[in-house]
Amino acid sequence: DIQMTQSPSSLSASVGDRVTITCRASQSISVHLNWYQKKAGNAPKLLIYAASRLQSGVPSRFSGSGSGTHFTLTISGLQPEDFATYFCQQSSIVPLTFGGGTRLEI
Amino acid sequence: QVDLQESGPGLVKPSETLSLTCSVSGASISSDYWSWIRQPAGKGLEWIGRISTSGSPDYKPSLRDRVTISIDVFRNQFSLTLRSVTAADTAVYYCARDWFTMVGGLVNEAFDHWGQGSLVTVSA
């Protein structure tokens, strides 16, 4: 299985900040990397697909980059509704696997 | 508007079988791949497996001996069966649609629509 490692596991920030979350794959996955936002009690929401493509309806303050084994999710100008947990997920090889999550908190 | 809704018992006894169904509306279940994903309390997301009408299901290897995912085209539903459950199988179970896109000549797969989740507790 491809292991996905996210860092940091938790992150404190303030409204208006710019934050970056990193996801590393245990082997190259090209750009087969997706990012999700999850709030307690809700289903995950797809934010970024194929490493850098913004899902329809997602605010442009979210952006993704990377390829191979190193990927980043950046949120520019944090809003109150952005405080949540973020997961990366690889779709290069079955079994599909997720990172452990990054909890973004005030 | 694609909508998915999980249903099934919220409590299962150890060693018994967990069964969940995902009802899909706004999309034909024949047109896509469909996955089950779970999240134990306080832990990360774990993909269980996926199914389509065009091939055999794919399962996470560590669960393959205990899991079956099936599809019902007429009811536009797909189902999860997990046998011989233990407390470690306690989790919120989600169904989701696998969305395939072409990006730069590559096919990317992501989960673009999810159910609200169904909490299943394994306890005597």
Rg of chain B to the nearest angstrom?
Answer: 14 Å
Strand content of chain B: over 45%
Count of beta strands of chain B: 11
Biggest sheet character of chain A: 7 strands, mixed
| C-alpha-based Rg of chain A, rounded | 13 Å
What order do the SSEs of chain B take from the amino end to the carboxyl end, as H and E?
Answer: EEEEEEEEEEE
What do the pLDDT scores of chain A average to?
A: 96
Strand segment tally of chain A: 11
The helix content of chain B is under 10%
Major beta sheet of chain B, specifics?
7 strands, mixed
Task: Please count the helical segments of chain B.
Answer: 0
Separation of the first and last Cα atoms of chain A: 34 Å
Chain-averaged pLDDT of chain B: 96
Helix/strand/pairing category of chain A:
mainly beta
Q: How much helicity do the residues of chain A have? A: under 10%
Q: Please, could you describe this protein's structure?
A:
Chain A has 106 residues and is mainly beta. Chain A is 0% helix and 50% strand. Chain A contains no helices and eleven strands. Chain A has strands spanning 4-7, 10-12, 18-25, 33-38, 45-49, 53-54, 62-67, 70-76, 85-90, 97-98, 102-105. In chain A, strands 2, 4, 5, 6, 9, 10 and 11 form a seven-stranded mixed β-sheet that branches. The model of chain A has no long low-confidence stretch (mean pLDDT 96). By secondary structure, chain B is mainly beta. Helices cover 0% and strands 56% of the residues of chain B. Chain B contains no helices and eleven strands. Chain B has strands at residues 3-7, 11-12, 18-25, 33-39, 46-51, 58-59, 67-72, 77-82, 91-103, 106-114, 118-122. In chain B, strands 2, 4, 5, 6, 9, 10 and 11 form a seven-stranded mixed β-sheet that branches. A four-stranded antiparallel β-sheet of chain B has the order 1-3-8-7, with no helix packed on it. The A-B interface holds A 1, 30-32, 34, 36, 38, 42-46, 49-50, 53, 55, 87, 89, 91, 94-101 and B 35, 44-47, 50, 58-61, 94, 96, 99, 101, 103-104, 106, 108-112, 114-117.
